[in-house]
Design brief:
Elements lengths: L2 H16 L9 E4 L1 H4 L1 H12 L4 E5 L8 E7 L2 E7 L5 E5 L14 E3 L3 E2 L6 E2 L5 E3 L3 H4 L9 E2 L1 E4 L2 E4 L9 H5 L3 H5 L7 E2 L4 E5 L2 H8 L17 E11 L2 E8 L14 H4 E7 L3 E5 L4 E9 L6 E9 L6 H31 L7 E4 L4 H13 L2
Antiparallel strand pairs: 1-21, 2-12, 3-4, 3-6, 4-5, 5-10, 7-8, 8-9, 11-12, 13-20, 14-20, 15-16, 16-17, 17-18, 18-19, 19-20
The chain binds FE2/S2 (inorganic) cluster and fe (ii) ion.
């Protein structure tokens, strides 16, 4: 185990001993309208989702040339593909002829991408390589799919939805890269069944992933049974947050334990702004949750995917499916049920503000980042 992980456990032990989590200097009030205001929401889409780097895939999602993953975010259908040269690229999943999707699948491996409208085809590096009846068409004027700035770093693939943007993933990570590298994201195996759960405003869902305070209450009988609540560590890296969670065995940890199983003693969530939460990764599994703002201010989609240290085949499929179902229930029946309640109550909230305590530092950081980027 690395010194960096030891020091997080030291801090968790100190927090358990003192009875206090890491804290912000003062509580924070956020106007309820921040969640419900359509103009603000539009600015979040335009200034954050369309302009800032997004984590679009893990290296292990597309390990081989031709492997791809496709989804839609902020009304942009995209496809992330590994080329024959080993480079991961992101393209708009939009045919240069008349705009149909070049793949309708969410993931897979492709020799080429063929649009099924008129069969234009594109190679794994996005180059247009086939136009049926080209001699009848006239001047085409384009050579391939629209490529988006993409960079692969520490086992994660980042892209910006603006084709003309600059991308410096290391700078964007703001110092979180070492902590992400320790998760060995490139040495995981995905379980390909993705859970999709409808959620309200994306920030209400994001608040849940950044909140170490609710685990022993809302999730008391599910994922909270092994946790010691509200003794979290919070580390801020650029706009991102790493949250440490104490467990009932945190105080038993000693550096001299040979090959300790870290999840027994603590768990970590890496929240990669604006919309990705990675839970775990130091043990055998990692859960990736992503938030996709929906078509209106009060809608979003939460997706969850499980990753393992061994390929998900044979008996591992059952293990993966059981884990998937547990987390689906927790997020749908506990988190989302609760935040749908908040969403519908926003106009009625007290003095028009929601409150984040000194102990909810991760949420402070999220709302500060959003306010700054949408000013
Ligand atoms: S729209 Fe793709 S081939 Fe016509
Ligand atoms: Fe939760």
């Amino acid at each position: 185990m690395s010194e960096a992980l030891f020091s997080i456990i030291d801090r968790l032990q100190a927090n358990v001993t003192s009875g206090l989590p890491d804290q912000a200097p003062a509580p924070m009030k956020v106007p309820a309208a921040t969640y419900a205001d359509e103009v603000q929401w539009r600015r979040e889409i335009d200034e954050i989702f369309l302009k800032r780097p997004l984590l679009v895939a893990l290296t292990c999602d597309i390990p081989e040339p031709g492997d791809f993953q496709a989804f839609e975010i902020a009304n942009r259908p995209i496809v992330v593909v590994r080329g024959d040269d080993g480079t991961a690229r992101t393209f708009l999943n939009v045919c240069r002829h008349r705009g149909a999707r070049v793949t309708e699948l969410e993931c897979g491996s492709a020799k080429r991408f063929m649009c099924n409208y008129h069969y234009w085809s594109y190679d794994r590096q996005g180059r247009l390589d086939g136009v049926p009846g080209a001699e009848t068409f006239g001047e085409i004027g384009v050579s391939g799919l629209v490529e988006l700035p993409t960079e692969e770093i520490v086992g994660a693939i980042f892209a910006v939805l603006d084709p003309n943007a600059d991308l410096d993933a290391r700078r964007w990570l703001g110092g979180m890269e070492d902590s992400l590298a320790a998760l060995r994201l490139d040495a995981l195996y995905p379980y390909r069944t993705i859970t999709k759960i409808e959620s309200p405003n994306w920030k209400l869902a994001a608040d849940g992933y950044l909140d170490g305070y609710h685990i022993g209450y809302l999730h008391k009988n599910s994922i909270g049974t092994k946790a010691v609540t509200n003794r979290n560590t919070y580390d801020l890296f650029g706009p991102h947050v790493r949250i440490g969670f104490a467990t009932k065995r945190t105080m038993e940890f000693e550096r001299s334990i040979p090959s300790p199983n870290l999840p027994d003693y603590m768990s970590l969530v890496h929240y990669v702004f604006p919309n990705v939460s990675m839970s775990g990764g130091h043990g055998d599994t990692l859960q990736l949750s992503r938030l996709f703002p929906g078509p209106t201010v009060n809608a979003s989609l939460t997706t969850q995917q499980q990753y393992f240290r061994e390929p998900v085949v044979g008996d591992m499929v059952r293990v993966a499916e059981e884990k998937r179902v547990v987390y689906e229930q927790v997020v749908r029946d506990e988190d989302c049920a609760t935040i749908f309640g908040i969403d519908s109550a926003l106009p009625a909230i007290g003095d028009g503000h929601v409150l984040f305590g000194r102990n909810e530092m991760g949420n402070h950081h999220l709302h500060r980042q959003i306010a700054e980027l949408t000013r």
